[in-house]
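Listing S7. Sequence submitted for prediction.
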Amino acid sequence: MSAPLHAELRCAQGCEFSAPWTEVVYRCPTCGGLLEVVHDVHALQRTSAEEWRRRFAQRRASARLPQASGVWGKKEWVLPELPDADVVSLAEGNNPLLPLPRLANDLGLDAVELKQCGVSATGSFKDLGMTVLVSAVKHMRARGQRIRAVACASTGDTSAALAAYCAAAGIPSVVFLPRDKVSLSQLVQPIANGALVLSLDTDFDGCMRIVQEVTQDGSLYLANSMNSLRIEGQKIVSVELCEQLAWEPPDWVVIPGGNLGNASALGRGFELLLATGLISRPPCIAVAQAQKANPLYRAFQRGFRDLQPVKAERTLASAIQIGDPVSIHRAVRVLKAFGGVVEEASESELANAAARADREGAFACPHTGVALAALEKLVAKGTIQKGSRVAVISTAHGLKFPDFKVGYHRSTLAEVQSRMPNPPLELPARVEEVRAALDDRLPRP
């Protein structure tokens, strides 16, 4: 009989430290580096690539959770030993892939596909990782481990996902938010789901320092992306993307980067796809950062020789307004392994790029705008060659950022020259003037 599938925590820097994934530990006690969930790849390889594809397709067609979840339908690749009774799912994953043919044509690309991770329970890709983390905590508590709540620092999306999944699991949650630096839509999500919300007079990096301090005794479980269980769910973006493209990966994947756990997760997903034979070649990865919060971009310009934090400035892309990303070393490793690059986008560039995608049916958040603007710049530089097939990861739904959308179309956003504003046309309620406006604005057949 084949040995059961197994996963455990190990030091991402190569130390000999390992621990079960049920242990409350986030860093290697030897080197202080972050941990990662390591799978028994040889055991996974005993199942053929064709069989994995068949299983995944069958589960994707299921109408019932947890198999219908985009994450738990691939449970063997996430936490194979977790009992189904402890799975906490809000039907995350299976996010749509939206083609942007006009943008592709304008850029001279064969295809641009927008992976809409914001079409999800709480409106962001954070759901993919939080379902794994909260399910693991539910299992730990069922085993008798004394975890009184789950806590995170957040710029908005992480707190929303944590609060929703903890509410579903019946587990208390605590979120630390930087005061006046998240949108009202993002602030109300954890409040509505019953989280204890602490609004601190600092930025995200300050919140992150405090949450690491208060979780040191293990009674509060840390839910930020330095926790490797989060990465396990988020890596499924890579698997879903390839599945939607008939197991033929794109030439490039462009992803916004803030705390950089998402970039690390993307690479880990592709590594597992290659190891199990579900894809035959890797894509290249580009990480996109806001110009006002760009430590990885600056490090890339120096050949990754010096990874220094920066003081993040206020940016429309508030969820990636992070100057000291905890996963920067993991992201650098992934970029080196996948022929990766880093690009930045100004406030005006990201806002106009989001507006262009909206004209093709998207409703792009500012962070997705950063990735789309980076795509345009990388094509213009020749880094992404004409004729390439590109996937862009949209990390959140635009509905979470109404002020960004309204401000763009009113041309009131600071540092943004709106090139495609579309404010409502205010008219008297008279048929003659309405007809005149229609004749003026609409083309004749």
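Caption to Listing S7: primary sequence and predicted structure tokens for the chain studied. The longest helix spans residues 126-142. The domain at 97-123+239-410 is CATH 3.40.50.1100 (Rossmann fold).
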